[in-house]
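testing teh design pipeline on a random one, pls ignore if ur not involved
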């Protein structure tokens, strides 16, 4: 069980910097694409190694819940009010959490992290080369968030009115 908890802690700690990097990449990608839009409106681009063009697509999408409720409320005001009240009603839901963390005097080893990274599909060499940078990012993020006990929701139970 000790090793399973160590893996859980290592996965949790690796998730944070990887997620942070993912979110940053996602924002940067959007900014990059938005920067190209005006120039691509004029003409598409064909370079030696890359190409890009702007396309407009009409896609049929399902109506959003808020939009549907608003439309229903306009058509059937009495029932719309009842429906909005039902949606606004708070419910209590029980959740089962697993809390985990390291003992004060203990640390995860590089091998603990390497094992998790290789289980994600990285080669041992890639894991070793990524490890220092990921740990650096993790330490910086940890300082900012004051890490205490962490948890994972592992189950949800029947809702009841609150």
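output:
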């Amino acid at each position: 069980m000790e090793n399973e908890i160590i893996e859980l802690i290592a996965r949790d700690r690796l998730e944070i910097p990887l997620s942070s990097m993912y979110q940053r990449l996602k924002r940067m990608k959007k900014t990059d694409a938005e920067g190209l839009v005006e120039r691509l409106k004029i003409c598409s681009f064909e370079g030696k190694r890359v190409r890009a063009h702007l396309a407009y697509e009409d896609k049929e999408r399902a109506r959003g819940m808020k939009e549907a409720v608003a439309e229903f409320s306009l058509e059937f005001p009495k029932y719309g009010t009842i429906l909005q009240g039902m949606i606004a009603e708070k419910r209590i839901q029980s959740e089962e959490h697993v809390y985990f963390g390291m003992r004060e005097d203990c640390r995860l080893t590089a091998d603990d992290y390497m094992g998790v990274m290789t289980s994600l599909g990285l080669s041992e060499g890639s894991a070793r080369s990524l490890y220092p940078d990921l740990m650096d990012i993790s330490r910086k993020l940890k300082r900012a968030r004051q890490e205490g006990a962490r948890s994972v929701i592992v189950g949800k139970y029947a809702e009841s009115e609150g």
